[in-house]
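Hi Y.,

Following your request, here is the sequence exactly as I used it, all 141 residues.
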Amino acid sequence: MSEVFTFGETMALMNASTPGPLAHVVSLDLGIGGAESNVAIALRRLGTSVAWRAEWARTNLGDMVLRELTAEGLELHGVRDTTGPTGLMIREHRTVDASRVFWRETWQRWGRRRPWLNWAGGAPSRTSTVGTTTSRLSPCA
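Below is the corresponding structure, written out as C-alpha cells. Let me know if you'd prefer a different format.
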C-alpha cells in the first residue's frame, strides 16, 4: 500500500524558452505539469511511496505523460482513453519576472466514466490528495 494516493489531470506543458510575448518566442520546451502530479512527484522525490490514478489519452503527449510519471517512480493506475486529447498548458514568460499560463484541461472525459476511481480492498493509502486539497483517510474509509 502506498503512503499517498492522488488523482487528477497531468497535462503536457509547453514552456517558452525565452521571455517575451508568445507570438515572438522561437521555441518551446516540452514537459508535464498539474498540481496533483507536481505534489506526487515532490513527495516521491522525498522518499514517500505514491500511487497515482488517472485517465490518459492515447496520444503522443499522453505517452509522454506516462513516461515521465513512470520515470519519477510513481505507482501508476488508470485507463487509456481513445476518445479525447491530452490536456495542454502553455507558459508564456512576459518578462523575466512575470509569466502567464494558458491551458486546455480535458476534465470532461472524467465526467463520462469513473471506473478507474474504484479501488478493490478499501483505501489505497493513508493519505489522499484530490484536486489541491489533501485530507487524511481513516482506516475504514
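Residues 108-116, 119-123, 130-141 have pLDDT under 50 and may be disordered.

Thanks again,
Q.
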